[in-house]
Amino acid sequence: TDKYAVIGHPIKHSKSPFIHAEFAKQSQQDIEYTAIEVPLESLASSLQQLRDILKLKGINITVPFKEQAWALADSLSDRAQRAGAINTVIFESDGTIYGDNTDGIGLCRDLENHHISLKDKRILLIGAGGAARGVIAPLMTYQPAELFIANRTASKATQLADLFSDLGIIKGGGFTDVSGHFDIIINATAASLQDEVPDLPESIFTEKSCCYDMMYADRDTAFIKWAKQHKVSQTIDGLGMLVEQAAEAFYLWRHIRPDTQAVLQQLRENIK
Ligand code: ATR
């Protein structure tokens, strides 16, 4: 049995053990996947223990360790290099730590599952933390007309826009710098956790807009509720992204692509 885990702090409510158990069942993979809470101050020594004592083959990493783990990895995929954070690790047989980031591809696959095309579209990405940074390069591969990064703290958004400016038309600013409307509006802030919505003008929405909250909950998030009030064409929460990023991690470890839709359906039924 090959062993894997997700680490975070807190980690109790993680759906990853369920998701990976379902993937393993589907594909008859003999793996064990658990959730492990790691103390906030000891990521480096915890990684060593997971590898040397628990003999894990790989791990997923969640809040708040993604950036710190990125800095500790011995080698990185190109997409992880650019993301500045990792959510997936392979413990290599020579003892080194390989880091990858599957969050961005997870978002893109979920958008594709919903038949949302990004080409030539105006995208508004709200937030400029680790979650936002991880999805910028993957989104730009679809050649949108423009990506505007809007953040409560404007300077963080303009910095991110500069950092990725080689990939296309990317602008950044504060909430008051946002003008016009957008085809696709993606919330990558933590505001929904506090039941708040970003303080953006209502003019961002049209009846054709598609709104995506990278968060999810057992009911509509504050952002999804707000978007629905403006009669947008489509609202999507982050549960599909969660399953897709897990599927990409499973692929890295086991070289098998699981059926994500079956697992997503089960998760939806479980949280009802
Ligand atoms: P993550 O890894 O989830 O991105 P983070 O790096 O701490 O976490 O970033 C949190 C993001 O949510 C930031 O963009 C933050 O805005 P600031 O940079 O101005 O702090 C945003 N955020 C958090 N709470 C928010 C709120 N109530 N309204 C708007 N933005 C919020």
From TrEMBL:
Report domain Quinate/shikimate 5-dehydrogenase/glutamyl-tRNA reductase positions: 117-192
- Keyword annotations for this protein? Amino-acid biosynthesis, Aromatic amino acid biosynthesis, NADP, Oxidoreductase
Q: Which residues form the SDH C-terminal domain?
A: 238-268
Q: Which residues form the active site?
A: K66
Which positions bind shikimate? S14, K15, S16, T62, N87, D103, Y216, Q245
Q: Does the keyword Ion transport apply?
A: no
The reply on keyword Amino-acid biosynthesis is: yes
Describe the task this protein carries out. Answer: Involved in the biosynthesis of the chorismate, which leads to the biosynthesis of aromatic amino acids. Catalyzes the reversible NADPH linked reduction of 3-dehydroshikimate (DHSA) to yield shikimate (SA).
Name of this chain's protein: Shikimate dehydrogenase (NADP(+))
State the oligomer form and interacting partners: Homodimer.
Q: List the InterPro entries.
A: Aminoacid_DH-like_N_sf (IPR046346), NAD(P)-bd_dom_sf (IPR036291), SDH_C (IPR041121), Shikimate_DH (IPR011342), Shikimate_DH-bd_N (IPR013708), Shikimate_DH_fam (IPR022893), Shikm_DH/Glu-tRNA_Rdtase (IPR006151)
Q: Output the CDD domains linked to this UniProt entry.
A: NAD_bind_Shikimate_DH (cd01065)
Gene label: aroE
Biological pathway: Metabolic intermediate biosynthesis; chorismate biosynthesis; chorismate from D-erythrose 4-phosphate and phosphoenolpyruvate: step 4/7
Look up the EC number in the record and give it.
1.1.1.25
Q: Where is the Shikimate dehydrogenase substrate binding N-terminal domain?
A: 6-89
- Per UniProt, where does NADP(+) bind? D78, G127, A128, G129, G130, A131, N151, R152, T153, A154, S155, K156, M214, G238
Family designation: Belongs to the shikimate dehydrogenase family.
Identify which top EC class this enzyme belongs to: oxidoreductase
Q: Which domain of life is it from?
A: Bacteria
Q: Which organism is it from?
A: Methylophaga marina
Q: What is this organism's lineage?
A: Bacteria, Pseudomonadati, Pseudomonadota, Gammaproteobacteria, Thiotrichales
- Pfam families recorded: SDH_C, Shikimate_DH, Shikimate_dh_N
Cite the Gene3D superfamilies for this sequence. Leucine Dehydrogenase, chain A, domain 1, NAD(P)-binding Rossmann-like Domain
**Known catalytic reactions:** shikimate + NADP(+) = 3-dehydroshikimate + NADPH + H(+)
